[in-house]
Every structure is written in structure tokens, then in C-alpha cells.
Specification:
The complex is a heterodimer. By secondary structure, chain A is an alpha/beta fold. Chain A has two domains: 206 residues, FAD/NAD(P)-binding domain (3-Layer(bba) Sandwich), CATH 3.50.50.60; 132 residues, FAD/NAD(P)-binding domain (3-Layer(bba) Sandwich). Helix content of chain A is 29%, strand content 26%. Chain A has ten helices and 24 strands. A five-stranded parallel beta sheet of chain A has the order 5-2-1-9-20, with helices on one face. In chain A, α2 runs parallel beside α9 and α6 runs parallel beside α7. Chain A is globular, with a radius of gyration of 22 Å. Chain B folds into two domains: 105 residues, Orthogonal Bundle (Cytochrome Bc1 Complex, Chain D, domain 2), CATH 1.10.760.10; 84 residues, Cytochrome c-like domain (Cytochrome Bc1 Complex, Chain D, domain 2, Orthogonal Bundle). Chain B is built from eleven helices and no strands. Chain B starts with a helix and ends with a helix. In chain B, α8 crosses α11 and α9 packs across α10. The radius of gyration of chain B is 19 Å and the shape is globular. Chain B is 40% helix and 0% strand. Classes of the chains: A alpha/beta, B mainly alpha. The complex binds flavin-adenine dinucleotide. The site of flavin-adenine dinucleotide has 39 residues of chain A, from α2, α3, α6, α9 and β22. Chain A: This is Sulfide dehydrogenase [flavocytochrome c] flavoprotein chain. Chain A: It is an enzyme of class 1 (oxidoreductase). Chain A: It comes from Shimia thalassica. Chain A: Keywords: FAD, Flavoprotein, Oxidoreductase, Signal. Chain A: Its EC number is 1.8.2.3.
């Protein structure tokens, strides 16, 4: 076995060198298993493998061979992107970085034995486990809807076939028809996501079906980038979008997928498309591992270690960490902190204080992009916001176009940071 | 077609030894072009003693093959363009300046492009004045630009720790690509240290306007900026 000598010596100068490194000496290469090959998991696998240069054995467990990013899936729905442009494979992680990619579901975690069982029957041992399984939906969150209704009333909140289905349904709407969205309560994946979605749907309808209507039933009294979206909806889609917040009964919703009706505060409306985005919780495997409290997995911001089991690091949407929004950018940022901590613990490489950042871009209409972002640091209590910014209402078209172009650059950047 | 047919014909005829005879004014207005060059000078120098900065210096650019300097590290895309025979004649330059990414896929020149033909022609007329015989290059370096931020010599003298830079860089690579590809967010690899440090401080003191970069640079110390400059400056 090869220990990273240089890193090990360097640990003396490190801010918080771990003492557990010698433990793994002589026990063969330390093993890291990563569950979930999305924004958090793919980044973590790549950074651990790349940084340790073969000194750590990294296995990535992910059922799909193709990962469709949720980010930019709204742009696909609007026709700004092809589906193939948001599809990514794990080939480079395996060939260039030596990650063992296993296409299977993790179905059980034995925290005492430190093993993961896979649906196919295999069992993987780990020294450290990384969980980045994204989200699942809370059962019964929207009365009348459960996952078996997702072909009639898609969520499109996991990208791929759901995005294709929603796009096809929107394009098949009769002239003057109605598109309804049931928005989720906080906290959920991608706070501006539902409202960017509505903007993109409106963009399609304005061109193909200008008399159509959009209703949003929202269990919240306000939402992310609200002033920017409402200004944009007024500018581009005047009169098309009706947002019903919780102050107006948007939190009292029931759907009927067979009848294609939505009842908002008792008033039943027949709709042509109904995009139900239910309340969310950490991906089920977190619950199965027994590392959740309530709907989410609590973690320490210094290392992204679970507060319940220090051999497990949890990333991205599944976590309860503090101030960061649940976004791909956040998951990617958290993955690098976890990768550093894991390398430090297993090979004694240098560890620096955790730093995080996030920026979320949203597209309102063609070349009308807006953004919100912040930087964060780890305190003992949580990941705490340091500084932030948000696009302003009334910005000129040139700036909005530059913002959109930046988001295209970011997409290329983050996907190459995830998949190599 | 970027220029009038007559001018193209003139240039075609000039691609031989005789081209040095032709005056720049045949392409456009070099005086107006000098103003257009403001859009290039954050990255390129021309004029006597011009050095490579973020981009290579542009003295003698006309009729030189793409990626011709041995002492400047170009992107893979630019080397491929040279292999494919790209030469910086008026057409080649015109196409590249109009749409850098489309003309040289994979270029690390972070420039959106100059859409107006007249602007390009005037700029080329200006650049042409630095491409005649070396002795004709004007004495006073016209691009000796004002330094963006005056930094104390101690700050510029800090030698960055590339290992620390590598860790800090992970915050940048969500947006800036490590291979220098430009898809809407500028390339920051292989910059001269000083240019990198100055650019970061310009964001930090909010002299450069960009909310994301002001925020990112805002919490970096002088040592951290130097570490990032050292890391990105040598990234292959
Ligand atoms: C419409 C929409 C737009 C968005 N736009 C943006 C945006 O512009 N910017 C941004 O930053 N974020 C955006 N997001 C949010 C972003 O997609 C998520 O925050 C991000 O993907 C979270 O990363 P993650 O690693 O936690 O989960 P995911 O990326 O969802 O990855 C989880 C992976 O785990 C796998 N998995 C789950 N359970 C198991 C198991 N038991 N065994 C093995 N594998 C398993 C899944 O197959 C999946 O591939 C958007 C989201 C949506 C829905």
C-alpha cells in the first residue's frame, strides 16, 4: 500500500490534521464509497480520486448510466437546449481518474460493519462513506398525488424522462388551455427552480399558445427572487401567469390525476397539464442508514460529516447544514470540502478551513438572465452566510444577456468539474 | 465577406513580399482603430517593447501563422488552428475578431467578439501599423496603459503557495474551467502573475464591477490571491 508521503509530512503544518491516518496503514488502501453520482457525489468521487492519486480506492454507486442535470432542464423544456446537452456519462471518472463506477442501487447500510449492500447482491466495505442521493418526495404531501401519478401529473424535479414528458404535455396543450403548478414548501431543491420553470413554460406558450393560462398554487407567502420574476413576468408574459400564494389559499390544494383537476382553496379547476412538485426530504437511503433527523441529514459544516455517524459524509440536497440553498452549485462546493476532509483523514494530506459558495442563475425569457449568490463559512453550529448579492430589478437588456451568457459558461464549468 | 471585393483582391495580391508597401488606410481608419484597441489592451500589448500578457503581443501579427510564438503558451484549440493552416491575414483576423470561439474552437481568448464590420476594419488598420518593418513601430509604446490598481510593491512581491492555491482554486473551478476553455466565463489559466493579482484586487476593492467576482475576491487575503495566481499561472 502506498501512503501519500508528501501529504503526510505536510500534515504537520496543516490547520486540522487528522489523527486517524495511521489507523489505516497496513490495512490495504483506504476505501471510500460514494452513493449517488450527481452534483455532490460525482464531484466528491472525482476530487478524492484526483487528489489522492490512487492512494484511496474510490467506488461510486449510481443506478443510471446517464445523469441528466436538473440544472438547465427548464431550458430544455423551453427549447433553448437539447436533452442530449444536459446528459452526462461516467466514462471519464472511470478512465481518467480511476473511480470504480458501479451502476446499481444502494439498498442498505450497516454502520457498525461499515458496509453498503447493493440491489444486485454485492456488499462494499468502506472506511468513509459519502452519501449524496439527492431528494425524494414526502408521501401524502399533495393530497391526491403519489409517485404512481407521475406520468399523469409529472414533477420533472428529477431530470430525464420526467422532463421529456412535461415538455411533450405542454406542447400538446389545446389552444387557450391551462397549465397548473403545485409548488413545494420550504426547504426544497433549487429555490428559484419552480419559478424559472413557469417562466420557461410561459415562453413556450407565448409562442405556440398565447391564449393559454398558467396557475401556480404555492404553499408559501413569497419565493426566491420574487421581485425579479414578477417584474419579468409582467414584462414578457403580461396577464398569463396567476400566482396564488398561501395568503390566498395556495396552501390548501388537492389534485385528481384521473380527472385532471386541481382544487385550490376549495375551487376546482380542470387543467390540461399539472406539474406537481411535492414537499421533499433526503433521498431514502439516508433514512435507511439512520442518519436523518426529521426530513434531512444533519451535518457539520467543517467536514460535511454526519452529526450522527462520523464515518459518513452527507452532501447536497439531502443535508441539513445551515444557510446554503439546496442547489447543484452548493452540492459541488460541499463535495470539495468533504473530499479535502476525507483525504486528510485517510492519507494525512493537508486540510484547510472549509469555504463554500453558491450562485444560482435563472432564465426569465430569451437572454433575460438573473442571478443570486453568496459565500459561506463553517461555524460549529452550521454553515453560515458571509456575503451575498442578487440581480436588481430594472437592469438593462445588455446586463441580463451577459448574465445569461455567464450561466452558460457556468454550466460548462460545473459539469466538467463534476465529470472531468 | 468582410471587406469590399476590391480590397480583398488588393490583399490577396499583397500576400507576397510586396505587402509591406500597402498602407493601413486601405483597410480602415487606424485612428479610430486605436480607440477600438481599448477592448483588447487588458490582455494584449502592441508597440515597441510589447510583451506577452494574458494574450500574446500583437506586433507583426499580419501574415503570421496562428500560435507562432514559442515563448507563449496557447490553447490546444489555437495550436490545432495553426496545424489546420490558419494565417492571420485580414480575413483570418476579421473572422477571429468577429467570433473568436466559432473561428477557433477551444480558444482561451475570453472575448465575445466585435460584431460591427467597420469596428473590425478600423482596428485591423490600427494593428496593421505595427506589422510593417519593425523599425516603423512607433517609438512611444501606445499601449502603455494606466495600471488598473496601484498595488504596494510588497503585495506584488508575495510569492504564492501553489498547494494552497490548488485548494482555493476548487472554489473557482465551478465556473472557470481548468483547461482554459471559454464558454461564457473567462479563462484564468496561465496568466502572468501580476495581471492575475491586479485583476483580483480590482474586484476586491470593487473597482471592477462584477457582483460574483467582487464577492469571491472580497474574502481573499493578499496571500490567498498570490497563491491562486501561482496555481492558475502554471496550470497545464
Ligand atoms: C428544475 C431544476 C432546476 C435546477 N436548476 C439549478 C441551477 O440552475 N443551479 C443549481 O446550482 N442547481 C439547480 N438545481 C438543483 C440541483 O439539480 C440539485 O440541487 C443538485 O442536483 C443536488 O445534488 P445532489 O448530489 O444532492 O443530488 P443529485 O444531483 O440529484 O444526485 C443524486 C444521485 O443519487 C442517485 N441515488 C439516489 N439514491 C440512490 C441509491 N440508493 N443508490 C445509488 N444511487 C442513488 C440518483 O440516481 C442521483 O443520480 C435545479 C433543480 C431542478 C429540479
Amino acid at each position: 500500500m502506498k501512503l501519500n508521503r508528501r501529504g503526510f509530512i505536510g500534515a504537520g503544518a496543516a490547520v486540522a490534521a487528522s489523527l486517524s491516518a495511521p489507523m489505516v496503514m497496513g490495512a490495504g488502501k483506504p476505501r471510500v464509497v460514494v452513493i449517488g453520482g450527481g452534483a455532490g457525489g460525482a464531484t466528491a468521487a472525482r476530487y478524492i480520486a484526483k487528489g489522492s492519486k490512487g492512494a484511496i480506492d474510490v467506488t461510486l454507486v449510481e443506478p443510471s448510466r446517464t445523469y441528466y442535470t436538473c440544472f438547465f432542464s427548464n431550458l430544455y423544456i423551453a427549447g433553448f437546449r437539447e436533452l442530449s446537452s444536459i446528459a452526462h456519462s461516467y466514462g471519464t471518472l472511470a478512465s481518467k481518474y480511476g473511480v470504480n463506477v458501479v451502476h446499481d442501487w444502494a439498498v442498505g447500510i450497516d454502520r457498525d460493519a461499515k458496509t453498503v449492500s447493493l440491489a444486485g447482491g454485492a456488499k462494499l466495505s468502506y472506511d468513509r462513506l459519502v452519501l449524496s442521493p439527492g431528494i425524494d418526495f414526502v408521501d401524502g404531501a399533495v393530497p391526491g398525488w403519489d409517485v404512481t401519478s407521475q406520468n399523469k401529473m409529472p414533477h420533472a424535479y428529477k431530470a430525464g424522462s420526467q422532463s421529456e414528458l412535461l415538455k411533450a404535455q405542454i406542447e400538446a396543450m389545446p389552444q387557450g388551455g391551462t397549465f397548473a403548478m403545485v409548488a413545494p414548501p420550504n426547504p426544497y431543491r433549487c429555490p428559484p427552480g419552480p419559478y424559472e420553470r413557469v417562466s420557461m413554460v410561459a415562453h413556450v406558450l407565448k409562442e405556440k399558445n398565447p391564449t393559454a393560462k398558467i396557475i401556480i398554487a404555492d404553499p408559501k407567502p413569497k419565493f426566491s427572487k420574487m421581485a425579479l420574476f414578477q417584474e419579468g413576468w409582467g414584462n414578457h408574459y403580461d396577464g398569463m401567469i396567476d400566482w396564488v400564494g398561501s395568503d390566498f389559499g395556495g396552501d390548501n390544494v388537492e389534485v385528481n390525476p384521473d380527472e385532471m383537476t386541481v382544487s385550490i382553496d376549495g375551487e376546482v379547476t380542470k387543467v390540461d397539464v399539472c406539474n406537481v412538485i411535492p414537499a421533499m426530504k433526503a433521498g431514502k437511503i439516508c433514512e435507511m442508514a439512520g442518519i436523518t433527523e426529521g426530513n434531512w441529514a444533519p451535518v457539520s459544516g467543517h467536514t460535511m460529516q454526519s452529526r450522527i455517524d462520523e464515518n459518513i459524509h452527507v452532501l447536497g440536497d439531502a443535508t441539513n447544514q445551515g444557510d446554503m440553498p439546496k442547489s447543484g452549485f452548493s452540492a459541488n462546493s460541499q463535495a470539495k470540502v468533504a473530499a479535502m476532509a476525507i483525504r486528510g483523514a485517510l492519507t494525512g494530506s493537508k486540510v484547510f478551513p472549509a469555504k463554500f459558495s453558491n450562485t444560482c442563475w435563472s432564465l426569465i425569457d430569451t437572454e433575460d438572465g438573473v442571478k443570486v449568490g453568496a459565500t459561506y463559512e463553517a461555524t460549529d453550529e452550521k454553515i453560515a452566510k458571509v456575503d451575498g448579492f442578487i440581480s436588481k430589478t430594472g437592469e438593462g437588456a445588455e446586463l441580463r444577456k451577459a448574465t445569461y451568457e455567464e450561466s452558460v459558461g457556468w454550466y460548462a464549468g460545473i459539469t466538467s468539474d463534476m465529470f472531468g | 465577406m468582410r471587406l469590399g471585393g476590391v480590397v480583398i483582391a488588393v490583399w490577396a495580391a499583397l500576400s507576397g513580399a510586396a505587402f509591406a508597401e500597402e498602407s493601413a488606410t486601405a483597410i480602415g481608419d487606424p485612428e479610430r482603430g486605436a480607440k477600438m484597441f481599448k477592448r483588447c489592451q487588458s490582455c494584449h500589448q502592441v508597440g515597441l517593447g510589447g510583451k506577452h500578457k494574458v494574450g500574446p503581443h500583437l506586433n507583426g501579427i499580419f501574415f503570421r501563422p496562428a500560435a507562432a510564438f514559442d515563448d507563449y503558451k496557447y490553447s490546444k484549440g489555437m495550436y490545432a488552428a495553426r496545424e489546420a493552416g490558419l494565417v492571420w491575414d485580414v480575413d483570418g483576423l476579421g473572422n477571429f475578431l468577429e467570433a473568436p470561439k466559432a473561428t477557433v474552437p477551444g480558444t482561451k481568448m475570453s472575448f465575445r467578439g466585435m460584431k460591427k464590420e467597420q469596428d473590425r476594419n478600423d482596428l485591423l488598420a490600427y494593428l496593421r501599423t505595427f506589422s510593417d518593418n519593425p523599425q516603423d513601430i512607433p517609438e512611444a509604446a501606445p499601449t502603455a496603459r494606466k495600471v488598473e490598481v496601484e498595488l504596494a510593491p510588497e503585495i506584488l512581491a508575495i510569492v504564492g503557495d501553489p498547494d494552497y492555491g490548488e485548494y482555493l482554486s476548487t472554489e473557482c473551478t465551478t465556473c472557470h474551467q481548468t483547461d482554459g476553455a471559454y464558454d461564457g466565463i473567462p479563462s484564468i489559466v496561465q496568466w502572468p502573475t501580476e495581471d492575475f493579482v491586479i485583476a483580483m484586487h480590482a474586484y476586491k476593492i470593487k473597482q471592477r464591477e462584477h457582483p460574483v467576482m467582487q464577492m469571491m475576491a472580497g474574502r481573499l487575503s493578499d496571500e490567498e490571491i498570490a497563491a491562486l495566481a501561482a496555481y492558475f499561472g502554471n496550470l497545464e
